[in-house]
Design a protein that fits this description.
There is one protein chain. The two termini are 34 Å apart. The chain has nine helices and six strands; from the N terminus they run E-H-E-H-H-H-H-H-H-H-E-E-H-E-E. The chain is of the alpha+beta class. It has one domain: 3-Layer(aba) Sandwich (Glutaredoxin), CATH 3.40.30. Helix 1 packs across helix 9 and helix 4 packs antiparallel against helix 5.
């Protein structure tokens, strides 16, 4: 069964939601039969980082909110993150355009390390205070995940994977997705927002039960005495 997750790296609730979702999935007995696909979404595609920008100056400018209100809001988000087992430090958080970060995720899908890249991007952005608009930061994350340096250089010296990112964003609009995180289970059930672990557990179980009805597990007939070959070894 496929679960698609639309998120943006600059979204703290996407980080919290990802952690809660993964906790729910880790306790699910059929997790091995679930495929996860990360989808791109940009909350503020027009923003470009300017030296000296902080999350407080960014929100004050874009939302028209006083600093005191922003500090209170971010404090509550940090507390929610702590409950989810992650650290979000808004004092060091650097607001950034995330288009290239999403291109890196698309490259990582091709290299089968997208889970590691998504986790690395969130940590770099919210915990480590790194500028994920900086191509050098993205390349370093990619190398740590095992992506060959030549592929990273080619990607960030070209428009590679821009089409894939834009397609994800267009698809979200066609589906009526206006906010993230957004979790789509087998294209039948949806969960939006950083829900608690229990809500994700319920969604996973319900959607998988429906999927299993249409995709029954095969029943193995015969007995254990039949000869089999596994990984080059044949036994009778």
């Amino acid at each position: 069964m496929k679960i698609e997750i639309w998120s943006d790296i600059m979204c703290p609730f996407c980080y919290i939601g990802k952690e809660n979702f993964e906790k729910a999935l880790s306790s699910f007995s059929e997790a091995g039969n679930i495929e996860i696909e990360y989808k791109s979404f940009q909350l503020d595609p027009s923003y470009r980082h300017k030296k000296g920008d902080t999350v407080f100056s960014y929100l004050s400018e874009t939302k028209g909110m006083p600093t005191e209100q922003i500090e209170g809001m971010t404090r509550h988000i940090s507390e929610a993150a702590e409950k989810a087992g992650i650290k979000i430090d808004f004092k060091t958080n650097i607001p950034a355009n995330t288009f290239d970060a999403h291109r890196l995720i698309s490259l990582a899908k091709q290299e089968n390390c997208d889970k590691e890249i998504v986790a690395g991007l969130f940590k770099a952005h919210f915990t480590d205070g790194k500028n994920i608009e900086d191509v050098d930061v993205l390349k370093e994350l990619g190398k740590k995940a095992g992506i060959p340096e030549e592929k990273l250089t080619k990607t960030f010296s070209s428009e590679d994977f821009a089409y894939e990112v834009n397609q994800d964003i267009m698809e979200s609009r066609n589906l009526g997705i206006s906010g993230v995180p957004f979790f789509l289970f087998d294209r039948k059930f949806a969960v939006s927002g950083a829900q608690p672990v229990e809500a994700f557990e319920e969604a996973v179980q319900k959607s998988f039960q429906e999927w299993r009805k249409e995709n029954p597990a095969f029943e193995e007939l015969g007995n254990s005495k039949g000869g089999t070959c596994t990984n080059g070894n044949c036994e009778v």
